[in-house]
């Protein structure tokens, strides 16, 4: 038997192509012994199962038998087959095709040539197609069922996902060679192996760092080239392809060549190569998967691992989450189809005689859709794929085009905007819609943009696309959309409305982008190219869901008099979201964040909406009050709310589930997509999942209708009859009080009553009720007519034979006339004897064959109708997208309201409803927070309530708009600032807040400069980071903004820091924005303490000093008790040595530091006195300076 197999081709020299030979073939039949199971790695023994091992004599599935050695002695050896040319191997296959069937489930070999290529099976059973034996389905699945050698495709059972490959021959099976019924030698189902071939298991001494593929010249790092023979140093090098020499491919067998050709075009992917029931990985892919998935290598001289089809979702998810790209390759031909294809070809080669395999899906972190074969996800968060194009306008500005999408939902966001030198808008976009994968033009991004991607998106997968070829121009993008079938309706291209806004109006064909949207279209082109590569472009684009993205601050252009807020949403940029711990804390985790505190959502789509509400708080007072009223109404009905929340928790992720159903409908799949040709071992399982998904979404929407009707019937408190948002999202449009929740009852009745749910889940097909589908009704009528004809013909035969005649047989051998022997003599020339049993003979006639042919034809038509029926039903369901989507949005809104209401209800401390007052011309914006508490404490932490009042009118004069905050280190200054910022965000969301009362004018934007660290990756120092954040404040803050600045200037020298801080304070005073400005620069406090536009406040503490004696008064320790209370006036010192003591610094160092600090302080006071003496005419000021000494 030839050794030119996928599993053993490395046993010969790749350069020579000549197979090695072993001993001469033995004529006796081989006894296949039990071989060890290929299994998951036992590195984690708690999660793996180690199967029983067998004697090492049974190497690679070969059987031990007695042979005569050259010296005439008898010895026990391992049977080997001599390598032969391909023609001889095929002849041997034909000679041995008459074999007794083994009662096993098996995967038939691919073809005559693939007999020597992948499976080494006989010619009659060529191909990998799974053809189950009904008896073998009930075979024992015990450990005694051995598994195949590394290239067998026999399988034990369908449920064992842990073992990558199942064995084929049981030890209880009789050897065919021992049978007296056949003198032919039994064909071995194991590949010929070289004596040196070892089973690769733990501890067998195989060198995993010396795999044969590492020795291939074209795979050596210095010699790797892409498909165009460009080296990695070439600017146009394509890392997604690999040059594989043609002379090397000529030495390969068909299956091996097929793998290398796919790898050459997808070098950056891990190929999950389907072989029968299993996905197999070879060479470099096997090394990666063995490491990441803890799989053991299979036997053989080269890297090779695999697992069953049923384990695809689990294993691919692990690799994708780690940043790998996975290409799923399916068999798209049966052996019969391959034979027919080869027959139609005028000339065939051995490379044609292999079943076709095609890539059905490429999956990355940014392109997951969680389809039927992928499995579910418990992660409710969005995972965005984003494409960024850039044009540098000047040294300080850039023009960006962006397109981003969560592929599991299918909504494209398209936008274009200018940005500053700090990429503020791009950073905010990435914070609001965090991408997991970034596409950008190679060598086209500026240094500052690269820094944003490398630092802010450090964990995202990054793909540099080749300009024009992969990152398309706007014209190429629009031509592709026009020529494709994405938006065609009756052969006309009908663009989605939001996409039309990006198209130019100078052409009827709309093949030019709007001048202001060209880069946005370019980014769309990059996304389309990538989705096409992943084989999912039609699935997503055909839905036509496009949304226009505009940075929030573009909407906030203020009016000329600056007396109104012009935007609908508060702006929270990336820095503010990070500094206030809105979405994640400083450690990058979820604990202690506002999202964590408020998230009591019961549904995944509700959690995603809450995320967006946190990033985009409202600024319109009426909208905020509508949310407040809805939450207040829910708080007073805890029993109903508890009941509804339980029902919401039972809902599936309707958004993602709808997308999955759309992808299975006739509208969501291209007619020529490889997926439509894929042959799955678990096809019936996947069909059942599709039906279960559909029934699940129907039940989900039925539950949503019940939820809304409960609200309609409940006596809900209405705080505001003018704008009750809760009533609006729960009521039908035709209700006495109209709402926006769609009337779904009739739609659901139609779909629910159209088929038998139990039967559909059982068989994986929709069997429509009578009258629900005309095509199905017609084919059933045809089958019924044939059945009537069969019964009539049977009666005729009973009369003819004069006895009882019955039909016998199944499938294609049905309707044989079973006649008793005594009457069988009446069978004439028109009766053909098929077989017989004791006392009976079975005949077929022209008429039975005709009726059988009709029945088979109509049954196949029924199958086709049922198959198409599921897709048609899914399409009809998806045609009502607007209704279903509106229902989902109402449910999500209700879920978020309940989440906020649950937070308010569960809080033990005092909660209040914020009061918003409109801005008044000529008056400063106000915030008056009384006894506010920090909202985001974790565990049982209790926070001291504090008042924060900025801009309030007192005695006819307005309070200062800026407060200078001082206090000891660790005294709570940063917490006080975060408290005001977070409570402001909560208030603008419509949520109740932890305070006694809160009165404020709406805030258009919150700026923060709290804490600072250097950014090594971006090459930015601590001071530079501080100044960048401060620069954004000075450029964009308005009088309606809230500014929180913590310890500006600490990253440089005292003098420089103080000067910059003083200049910034002066600028913020002029802007009149509400500001908390903390500092340890007490000279800064001295400069502004008499300024009426600045107020002073500090975090109170109690100080106990330990002194030696009054003679030297040397302080050795200062003990601070933090009161965490915000008080008026300035704090005289920062008490940094208390922090040093708490940090455990040596006492000697602290004592020395205290002494030097006192000296510096005395010197500073003397300078102040000297300056006062010579510059002041005020005797009281001079006295104060003297007393300070």
TrEMBL record:
| Top-rank taxon | Eukaryota
Q: Does the keyword Nucleotide-binding apply?
A: yes
Report the source organism.
Answer: Aphis glycines
Acidic residues: bias regions:
88-97, 111-130, 140-162
Q: List where Low complexity composition bias occurs.
A: 177-188
For the keyword DNA-binding, the answer is yes
Instruction: List the GO terms this entry assigns under cellular component, sorted alphabetically.
Output: MutSalpha complex
- Ranges for domain DNA mismatch repair proteins mutS family come to 1041-1057
Q: Which family does it belong to?
A: Belongs to the DNA mismatch repair MutS family.
Give me any GO biological process, just one.
mismatch repair
* Name of the protein this chain belongs to: DNA mismatch repair protein
GO molecular function terms here? ATP binding; ATP-dependent DNA damage sensor activity; mismatched DNA binding
SMART domains reported for this sequence: MUTSac, MUTSd
Composition-biased stretches, type Basic and acidic residues, lie in 195-208
Cited PROSITE patterns: DNA_MISMATCH_REPAIR_2 (PS00486)
Matches recorded under Pfam families: MutS_I (PF01624), MutS_II (PF05188), MutS_III (PF05192), MutS_IV (PF05190), MutS_V (PF00488)
Protein keywords: ATP-binding, DNA damage, DNA repair, DNA-binding, Nucleotide-binding
